[in-house]
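Researcher: Quick test of sequence recovery. Tokens follow.
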């Protein structure tokens, strides 16, 4: 049987009656409060050493305390059917995010002629220190009401502008010379031009000249300011693009309207390719509106059934990408169907081995844990319920999938069912490779280019530091 909530009528209420509740203002609830009220000054508008938001001075707690007091009146004393007519709140001190606050309401007076009950309210922190005090005037119900409690809907915030942070991080960085391989579709050509207009890349358009010019004219795109290198067909375009990177004429590649295998075949060829000692792998940088931070999924596009050695490279590539976008010590979750090691599921054995390899310094720059099921990797409550104590569980920045099939399905599910934007990049070659899709939005195409710019800058700085050290 469900729990029952029951009100207290005006006649039942006595002077001195009391009710209380305890709640914590967590980060997501705080952001929801700011969003609902439209009070953007509660957010830190200029992240840095000094917090510019009102929350650091307790600016958000007045409305929070008032909401708790109003909730007491509406659900407990008097409860169902009551109407709050006046609230007078005084804030005494800030309360940190995540600290439980106990709100207590005590009946101070009753006004028989109006049916008003006056409540003295107090909010305290766990030490008993007063956070806020106030007075509520509430019109109490005259009739008795009893109802089953209902499950409240969960508020999930959509964070749609996260890619803007990537673009902002690229401000002041040099545009990358970018070999745009076979941009022979409106989407491919438009993506390159938009990235150029945002000063992310300096495009070199490689492909059949007549076709590229025809598309530009059709889409009313001015390409007169960009270098155009004629190529006979898509395979030739890929060959020329790789040669340009080797010659130093371009610092990155962007996939146009050719097949991914056709481009990567030229990248990985033993003679005249862009291979390094590391295996190439693909990373999706996902902006999931309901997840509190960007997340990297790898590998969902290149390595079909990666070996243990392949996964070492896949993870290292992803960690270096995380560093490039500002995650100093990324948390890496190695996914499987379960969170325990069992020889019945080979990916759990590999996860255990990879974690031990990280302990031995064979993978560096991140914190690894696995095997973890998907829910345990991204949801702290799910991890807590299963008794998983880990610095990664529930807080993952990188999700390492068992194989391409799992990764591809995961990325597409998040894209098409959770409205995630998925920027794509290939790493492990001599230059980052921007992979775009016809289904990509303009924002996603720009984000993919921004990621390449940030990664190339991180590589440049790393090489300069290594040279300085001798």
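Model:
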């Amino acid at each position: 049987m469900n729990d029952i909530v029951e009100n207290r009528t005006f006649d039942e209420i006595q002077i001195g009656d009391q009710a209380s509740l305890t709640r914590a203002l967590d980060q997501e609830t705080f952001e929801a409060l700011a969003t609902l009220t439209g009070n953007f000054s509660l957010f830190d508008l200029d992240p840095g050493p000094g917090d510019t938001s009102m929350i650091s001075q307790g600016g958000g707690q007045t409305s929070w305390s008032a909401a708790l007091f109003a909730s007491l009146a509406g659900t407990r004393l008097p409860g169902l059917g009551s109407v709050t007519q006046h609230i007078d709140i005084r804030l005494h001190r800030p309360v940190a995010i995540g600290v439980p606050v106990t709100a207590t309401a005590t009946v101070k007076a009753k006004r028989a002629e109006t049916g008003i009950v006056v409540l003295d309210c107090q909010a305290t922190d766990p030490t008993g220190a007063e956070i806020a005090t106030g007075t509520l005037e509430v019109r109490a119900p005259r009739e008795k009401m009893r109802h089953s409690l209902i499950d409240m809907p969960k508020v999930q915030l959509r964070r749609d502008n996260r890619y803007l942070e990537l673009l902002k991080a690229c401000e002041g960085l040099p545009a990358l010379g970018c070999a745009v391989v076979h941009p022979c579709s409106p989407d491919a050509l438009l993506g390159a031009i938009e990235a150029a207009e945002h000063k992310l890349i300096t495009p070199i358009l490689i492909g059949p000249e007549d076709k590229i010019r025809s598309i530009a004219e059709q889409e009313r795109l001015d390409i007169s300011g960009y270098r155009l290198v004629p190529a006979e067909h898509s395979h030739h375009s890929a060959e020329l693009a790789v040669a340009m990177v080797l010659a130093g004429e371009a610092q990155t590649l962007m996939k146009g309207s050719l097949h991914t295998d056709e481009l990567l075949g030229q990248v990985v060829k033993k003679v005249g390719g862009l291979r390094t000692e590391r295996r190439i792998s693909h990373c999706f940088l996902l902006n999931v509106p309901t997840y509190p931070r960007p997340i990297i999924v790898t590998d969902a596009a290149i390595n079909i059934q990666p070996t243990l050695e392949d996964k070492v490279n896949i993870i290292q590539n992803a960690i270096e990408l995380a560093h490039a976008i500002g995650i100093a010590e990324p948390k890496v979750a190695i996914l499987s169907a379960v969170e325990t090691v069992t020889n019945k599921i080979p990916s759990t054995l590999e996860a255990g081995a990879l974690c031990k390899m990280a302990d031995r310094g064979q993978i560096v720059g991140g914190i690894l844990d696995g095997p973890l099921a998907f829910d345990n990797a991204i949801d702290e409550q799910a991890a807590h319920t299963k008794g998983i104590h880990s610095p990664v569980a529930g807080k993952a920045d990188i999700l390492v999938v068992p194989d391409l099939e799992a990764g591809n399905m995961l990325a597409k599910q998040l894209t098409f069912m959770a409205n995630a934007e998925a920027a794509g990049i290939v790493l492990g070659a001599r230059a980052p490779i921007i992979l775009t899709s016809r289904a990509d939005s303009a924002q996603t195409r720009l984000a993919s280019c921004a990621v390449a710019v940030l990664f190339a800058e991180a590589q440049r700085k790393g090489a300069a530091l290594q040279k300085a050290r001798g």
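The chain has a mean pLDDT of 88.
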